[in-house]
Amino acid sequence: MEIRSLDHVNLYTPDPDGLAAWYVEVLGLAIGWRPPFGIGGHWIYAGDRPIIHLVEVAEAPRNIEPGIEHFALSATGLPELQSRLDARGIAYSIDPVVGLDVVQVNLRDPQGNHIHVDFDLAEVGRARG
């Protein structure tokens, strides 16, 4: 057996439509097909892969220990992401990873989930900030 990659992240939310819209509008992902599970939610796609599964719950989940501190996405187009974040007033930081040719854009979704979007370090020269 060999684990080759992370398949998806599952997030509970009382507002699957609103959270799905945020991932579409801010990160440029897409809402796609989801099996009829009998509970509300959405699958959010990057290309042809459903990488974020949103599951409707009655109330906002509270952070519990142990928990997932963040999830990360790999991307291209750092200047475009910065423009989207700036236009919406979303706080973020751009943080190079020492020893890797990677820069992380750290941000939080509307529920407070920590996300970092990873870009090749070469994209920093094309970005603001």
TrEMBL record:
According to the lineage, what is the superkingdom?
Bacteria
Cite the VOC domain residue spans from the record: 5-120
Q: Which PROSITE patterns match?
A: VOC
Q: Which residues form the signal peptide?
A: none
Q: What is this protein called?
A: Glyoxalase-like domain protein
